[in-house]
Structure formats: structure tokens, C-alpha cells
Amino acid sequence: MARAYKEAMQQRGELPGRQWLEAWNWRADRVGEQALVLARGVRRFLDFVFLVLATGVRLRWIHRPAVVAVMIRQIYFTGVQSLLWVLLLSLGAGVLTVYNIVTFAKGIGDLSLIGRLVNGVLVQEMAPLIIAVFLLARSGVAVVTEVGTMHIRGEDLLLRSLGISRKEYLYWPRMMAFALCGLILTFMFVAIALWVGGLVVSWTYTLNFNEYLIDVRQGTTLAELLMMAGKGLLYPLLSCGMLLDQAGRVGDNPNQIPVRATYGVLGSLMIVLFLDGLTVLASSLG
Fold it and tell me: CA-CA 20 to 30 A from 120: which of 40, 110, 222, 238?
């Protein structure tokens, strides 16, 4: 019957057999081509991150004051200057999250869920994700613009001529600053959000603050804290790797800087969301 239907459609001119097959072949070729491009891009990105990390693990940069000075400046710009913003984010997110969790637990009449819900929502998911997105929003474009401009001016070639590794001087300090600041800011975010959220809720609800802290402590395990720390370290590190990878592809055209900045920020967001989805899936399966 399917063959008769196809022949009838061909006779009516609605489904030309050869053109229909060629169209589907063309679509399949396009999908395969895009998949290969994506695979090559992922491999190039992973190779780039691995080489930069390998350069940093050698610890030769410790004995080079110029590299240490760059890292200190990057930590100050990425972390120290972000403290006020992280404080405001943690205050708002902590109050809203804890308030809604307590409201939900009271609604179903089971206050013992508060600790587990706070850990699962605020500690495990919101804190690493919000800090990673915040660092991207605040410093992502700046990283691509700075490194891309240096590339256009030929400063990276000057470094190479002087025997200075670009990975050690340009890339490693920025990746390390993103990773360290992401980890520290994530812990700060969680601590402030938990305490301030609990204090505000204890003032507005018949909820004992000490009992709230005990519930949160009982609902949080060491493995979950390590998972949060891993996310807080890995998400910013890979995000910065994507930004630096795009900055290195600016070429000699200054007009490519905003284009690569957009690709870098969007690519970093996709990496963070993809990894977060994988962790949620792995934890649910486990």
C-alpha cells in the first residue's frame, strides 16, 4: 500500500521520486557536515584546554614574576572586584530560595524536607550555575577583547620571539583566575545565601534559626559539597577556555572581536548547561 501511495503521489506531481530522494540526501549531507564541524571544534577546544592546563601544571610560571603579576591582576579583576555583585546576588537568591522552600515544606506539612531541598536547589544547582553565568556576563567579553586585541597588535608574536610562551603568559593566568575565583565565590554565595535566607525566614515565619541550620547540615553530605566545589571550579575554567579559544581565532581583523566574543560567551553557556544537565542525569541514575 505504501508503494501504491508513493506511485500515486508521483503521478500527481506532489512527490517527484528523484527530487525527493536528492532533497533528503542533501539534508543528510548538511547534518553530517555540521556534525563533523562540531566534532572538530570540540576536539580543538579540548586540546587547547589540555595544553594550557599542562603548561600550568609544570609550575614553571611560579619562578617568573611577570606571569605571577598577570595572575594577581586577573584574580583582582575577576574576583575581588566582583565581591559586591556576588553579595547582592547571594542576598537576593538566598532570601527568595529559602523563603519558597520553607513555604513549600509548610504547605505539605513536612519541615524535614527543608534541608534536602535547600541543598539540592541552592547548594548543588543554583550556586555554581549563577556564579559561572555571572563571571561570563561580567568578564567574558573583556577576556576576548583583551586577548584578541593583543593578537591583532602582534603582541603574541613578540612574546614568541622573546621565548615567552603564550599559553603560560596569556592563557594560564586567566584560566587559573577564573577557576579559583569561581570556586571561592561559589562558597561565598552559598554561605551568605544560607545564613541570610535563614535569618529572614526565621523573622517572618515560626521557624527556629538553629533548627533550620541543623536541617541544612543534615541534608548536606561531604560528597555533595565536593560536587558543588567541582562545579564551581570546572564551569568557570572551561568557560574561560572557550573565551580564550575564540580570542585566538580573531586573526588580523578587529571586526572579528565582537563576533568571537559573542561565540565565546554563547559557547561557554552551552558548555555549562550541558555539563550541568549531565551531572543531574548522572546523579538521578546513580
Answer: 238
What are the angstrom distances between the C-alpha of 115 and each of 31, 61, 229? 46, 43, 19
Count of the separate structural domains present in the chain = 1
209 CB-near residues (< 8 Å, 6+ apart): 198, 199, 202
Mean pLDDT of the chain: 84
Identify which has the larger pLDDT, 254 or 183.
183
Are 114 and 216 in contact by the 8 Å Cβ rule? The answer is: yes
Angle at 71 between CA 133 and CA 225, to 5 degrees: 45
Euclidean distance between CA atoms 122 and 191, whole angstroms: 10
Residue 109 burial class via C-beta count within 10 angstroms: exposed 0-12, middle 13-18, buried 19 and up: exposed
Dig out the grid coordinates for 214 from the structure: 541543623
The share of the chain scoring above pLDDT 70, in percent, equals: 90
pTM over 0.90: no
- How many residues are listed for the chain in this entry? 286
- Confirm whether 185 is domain-assigned: yes
Among 95, 92, 110, 111, which residue's Cα sits nearest to residue 212? Answer: 111
Does 11 map to a domain? Answer: no
What is the domain extent for residue 54? Answer: 47-277
Q: Which residues of 192-221 are buried (b: 16+ CB within 10 A; e: fewer)?
A: bbbbbbbebbbeeeebeeeebeebbeebbe
Q: What is the band of 41 on the pLDDT scale with cuts at 50, 70, 90?
A: confident
37 within domain boundaries: no
Residues 6+ apart with CB under 8 A from 135: 78, 82, 178, 181, 182, 185, 236, 239
DSSP for 5-72, written as a single string: HHHHHHHTTSS-HHHHHHHHHHHHHHHHHHHHHHHHHHHHHHHHHHHHHHHHHT-GGGG-HHHHHHHH
Cα 84 from Cα 82, distance rounded (Å):
6
Residue 70 lies in a domain: yes
